[in-house]
Write a structure and sequence with these properties.
The protein starts with a helix and ends in a 10-residue tail after the last helix. It has 23 helices and 4 strands. It is mainly alpha-helical. The protein has one domain (16-285, 353-466).
């Protein structure tokens, strides 16, 4: 088997992008210009126009404090930095976020007054750009494999626009420490998705690629736990699928290396957990959460005693939150649908309501098409077993998100590695089958309209998210979601405390 065949590329498939006449210097210059425009646009949206990448945000000093204390061999943070998000144990204050974003602050130590320099906005922007870079690399990889033709160029442009201007890159742009953590988790997930996509389509997982995926999974685990669980599950099942193949024992031995990397990061996570909670398997102890100790939130602990931190009874309502957001509509008896069971089971159910088919309609369509083709055995993947293993692994953390007592809008970001990998696999099918042809006018208009809708809705929901108070929807907008947003448009501020 020659090198092209080993890479999963047919000799008969022309490779687009090699022609075109652009000099290397002009090509690099054009890339830098476009990258600067995209970065500037993201900075505009993220900062709502003020472009201050060091703008202070609430609790923006948490990771500065965490980094300083870790250098002293401690895992607590300053009480003034973490505020009501504090966990109180043995006279010290702790935060539940992973340590990666704290380690990012290490270079700040060389800057004067670093303890008061808030880099939350800058860090968020870098994470967003890194995620976009990985996704565009995935698109370029597919275009390089595809037949040269009008279909390839049209689909490539549409997916590129969807990546840049809708979905995960746009919908969650809100200045907060919570978002920074999610943005970095999404960046690691996008890098993992790219490596998995290349391996699945080339049918080749060299040791370097597996260890890279393990590194990203470990970093994600130390950033945002549910995102890390997704990547750990995907890589673990992938390694199992690769080991199941008939291959020399030496090839199976190499699979120990990525598992060792995963184990190393798991141990590091356990050390941090032990330093915070006294138990390596505890990621957060909500019985010592400062907010839960306030009289106004005493029912949170009673609810956790009754239903636990994760409950199967919550899963149907988790599915409603993420995929059937009818809960935000009024009922005949209450300002929200299902209000009684929601208040019984959840600490909060956060606005705004959304759906992936609205922010990412093209990706959802491509993913659905790929699953249909996979079931029919026509998915253009070399190993359906490995592909299925990765996709199933990426759902593990997502399933966990259906059962905790809090449903937050930003948690949707943990679903994107699964959605985007499935969508890129679906795009590969489309490119292989339609890349060399010219799509009909009706199809082109329909696909372009789908992308345009996703771009418009993503920008709209981002604007809504920016102004939505945090906390349970029925607390911040007790009169209902629609009247609540109308009040905001009139300049009225909700009287309830915004968490």
């Amino acid at each position: 088997m020659d090198q092209q065949a080993a890479a999963g590329i047919s000799k008969s498939d022309p490779r687009p992008g090699t022609a075109g006449g652009l000099s290397p210097v002009l090509g690099v210059g054009l890339f830098v210009l476009l990258a600067a425009i995209v970065a500037g646009y993201y900075a505009l949206l993220l900062t709502s126009g003020h472009f201050d990448l060091f703008h202070p945000v609430p609790r923006g000093m948490v990771f500065n404090s965490m980094m300083e204390h870790m250098l002293q061999g401690r895992f607590d943070v300053d009480p003034d930095a973490v505020g009501y998000e504090a966990f109180l144990r043995d006279g010290r204050t702790y935060a539940y976020w992973g340590v990666f974003c704290a380690l990012l602050r290490l270079p700040l130590m060389f800057a004067p007054g670093w303890r008061t320099v808030d880099v939350t906005v800058l860090s968020s922007l870098i994470a967003i750009l890194l995620a976009v870079w990985f996704k565009l690399r995935a698109l370029y990889f597919l275009l390089q494999r595809a037949p040269d033709g009008a279909g390839t160029r049209f689909l490539g442009i549409l997916v590129g626009l969807a990546i840049l201007f809708s979905g995960a890159q746009i919908s969650f742009m809100r200045l907060s420490l919570y978002q920074e953590v999610c943005f970095w988790g999404a960046a690691f997930g996008a890098g993992f998705m790219l490596a998995a996509l290349r391996g699945l389509l080339e049918d080749r997982f060299p040791l370097s690629r597996l260890c890279w995926m393990a590194l990203l999974a470990g970093l994600a685990l130390n950033t945002r736990v549910t995102c890390g669980i997704n990547l750990y599950g995907a890589l673990g099942l992938l390694v199992a699928a690769l080991a199941f193949r008939s291959q020399p024992s030496s090839a199976r031995l190499r699979l120990i290396a990525p598992l060792a990397v995963l184990g190393l990061f798991a141990v590091l996570t356990g050390v941090v957990n032990y330093g915070r909670w006294g138990n390596p398997f505890t990621f957060a102890n909500y019985y010592i959460y400062a907010l839960n100790l306030e009289p106004a939130h005493a029912d949170n602990l009673a609810r956790m005693d009754k239903y636990g931190l994760f409950s199967l009874e919550r899963i149907p309502y988790g599915l409603i939150y993420y995929f059937f957001p009818i809960w935000a509509l009024p009922s005949a008896q209450a300002p929200y649908q299902l209000l009684e069971p929601l208040k019984r089971l959840f600490d909060f159910y956060e606005l705004p309501p959304s759906h992936f088919a609205l922010t990412d309609p093209l990706l959802v369509g491509l993913f659905g098409w790929f699953l249909w083709r996979l079931v029919r055995g026509r998915a253009h993947v070399a190993s359906p077993l490995a592909t299925t293993a990765v996709l199933i692994g990426l759902t593990i953390g997502c399933i966990m998100l259906l059962s905790p007592p809090a449903m937050c809008y930003r948690y949707r970001m943990d679903f994107y590695p699964l959605l985007e990998l499935g969508a890129f696999l679906g795009l590969n099918v489309a490119l292989q089958e339609y890349g060399a042809t010219r799509l009909g006018l009706g199809r082109r208009i329909a696909l372009a309209s789908v992308v345009a809708f996703g771009v418009i809705f993503s920008h709209g929901i981002m604007a809504v998210y920016k102004v939505t108070p945090g906390g349970a929807g029925w607390v911040v907008f007790p009169q209902g979601a629609v009247p609540g947003y109308r009040a905001l448009l009139r300049g009225e501020t909700p009287s309830q405390r915004s968490l």
